[in-house]
Design brief:
By secondary structure, this protein is α/β, with parallel strands linked by helices. The protein contains six helices and eight strands. The strands form two sheets. It has a six-stranded mixed sheet with strand order 2-3-1-4-5-6, sandwiched between helices. It has a two-stranded antiparallel sheet with strand order 7-8. Strand 7 and strand 8 form a beta hairpin. It is globular, with a radius of gyration of 17 Å. It starts with 6 loop residues before the first strand and ends with a helix. Belongs to the small GTPase superfamily. Rab family. It is found in: Endomembrane system. It is a lipid-anchor. It comes from Forsythia ovata.
């Protein structure tokens, strides 16, 4: 039985990154515990939800897995607008996907929710022999950009649950605001309101 101190938090989370970086595989591994070797490319975006219990709260992630193809880029703001968290995924065997991840980070920092929790995920960590992006390079970039960083492998199920759990722990603990529709809305943290 949940204690009265428990909070239910709905958090919109968006995955961004280059085509083929493994965004859909990361989500599928987290939500269904599955890995599909030859995943079809996402068209537009796919929606999933999954719940994580962390400390005093239950976080229900509403996950938007966006398409990596350039032609869908203009749709991305529709998905990251109002997101509480973002995972920017790159493929450790593909330098171009890391460079593209940096562009996503810049875009989110310029246009996203200012209190958004951002994670950089170096996916395909099981393919060490084909590595093109060093852990140190990605770690240094993440540090200077105020992101938290993890290398993951959707195939080997490495750090997938930990990635989402870490995001859940870092979400601002917001007070739920009731609204007439019955949905729980999130209030902005007080210090953000004061400064805006």
């Amino acid at each position: 039985m949940a204690s009265s101190g428990n909070k239910n938090i709905n958090a919109k989370l968006v995955l961004l990154g280059d085509v083929g970086a493994g965004k859909s595989s990361v989500v599928l591994r987290f939500v269904k515990g599955q890995f599909i070797e030859f995943q079809e490319s996402t068209i537009g975006a796919a929606f999933f939800s999954q719940t994580v219990a962390v400390n005093d709260a239950t976080v229900k992630f509403e996950i938007w897995d966006t398409a990596g193809q350039e032609r869908y880029h203009s749709l991305a703001p529709m998905y990251y607008r109002g997101a509480a968290a973002a995972i920017i995924v790159y493929d450790i065997t593909n330098q171009a996907s890391f460079d593209r991840a940096k562009k996503w980070v810049q875009e989110l920092q310029a246009q996203g929710n200012p209190s958004m929790v951002m994670a950089l995920a170096g996916n395909k960590a099981d393919l060490l022999d084909a590595r093109k992006v060093s852990t140190e390079e990605a770690q240094a970039y993440a540090q200077e950009s105020s992101l938290f960083f993890m290398e993951t492998s959707a195939k080997a199920a490495t750090n997938i649950n930990e990635l989402f759990y870490e995001i859940a722990k870092r979400l601002p603990r917001l007070q739920p605001v009731p609204n007439p529709s019955g949905m729980v809305l999130m209030d902005r943290p007080a210090e953000r309101v004061a400064r805006s």
